[in-house]
Amino acid sequence: QAQLVESGGGLVQAGGSLRLSCAVSGRPFSNYAMGWFRQAPGKEREFVAAISRMGRKTEYADSVKGRFTISRDNAKNTMYLQMSSLKPEDTAVYYCAADFSLTEASLLRTAASVYDYWGQGTQVTVSS
Question: Which residues make beta-bridge pairs with 4?
Answer without folding.
Answer: 24
